[in-house]
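Lab notebook page, bench 4
Experiment: in silico fold of construct C2
Operator: M.H.
Input chain length: 295 residues
Purpose: comparison with the prior construct
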Amino acid sequence: TGVGTATITATLDGLSATVSVTVTQVAVAPVVVSGNFQSAPVSGTLSQPIIVRVTDRLGVAMAGQAVTFAIQSGGGSLSATAVNSDVAGLAQSTWTLGASSVAPQRVTAAVNGVATTTLFSATALAGPPTQMIVAPGNTADGQVGTMGTAVAVLPAVEVRDVLGNPVAGATVTFAVTSGGGSLTGGTAVTDGAGVATVGSWTLGPAAGVNTLTASLAALTPVVFTANGVADRCAAEGAQPIAVGVTVTSNLGATDCQATFPEGTVRFEFYRLTLVATTPLVLDMASATFDTWLSI
């Protein structure tokens, strides 16, 4: 069961034969000794080397075995990629992490001739905040809402380090800077994706431009703009039209809604201003549904 030389003798009907055999154990997949699951700043070197031990199937250390260390994901570099195990069966390398805090940081160790590899993992930590931008996919800037009501899309920002990695745990302050509106959740901490979102933003009571500013220490602030308008489903928010003008419109699920005994209808408000007595004919037509005019 170990390593060495043995003699085998076979006997049959007075005849015998002897043969000598040499037993040699082969290496199995290397075993992690230390250095797994460390952390360091992005592009930083881990404080401890990654070390494996090469053994045979009986757990006996094997010297002189070729061990290959390789970056599997995350980038970075290794001080040594091809190492022969020492008398204790140990092989090691120093690992410098890649520049991304998002990509998994992984290194494999393999013994020559053994298919199974051994995996090391580490965590790359984002650096300090150096930039703040509108969170990718956030469409809060430039939206239009009814004055005195909450906006439909909440403003959100993303905080990044100098290499563009998202920074978690940064405290962002949101503040209303024009328009006379209000907010909730004005202090927000960035999540694992580096994103901070205001709790709510209610536009001011008058029509016009509203702004909300996100700030973090000395970083360039991010300003969100929203335009407050009168309720288009109320008389003051009606769309102006003029005599002689044809208006084409498509009613849909976002249009105004009213409920009558006959059922629920969708409608739009228009405002026609006459400065003198004027003969007037209003004509409505639709190829899709019945039209209804209320004055």
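Observations: DSSP finds no helices and 26 strands in the chain. The chain has a mean pLDDT of 91.
Next step: discuss at group meeting.
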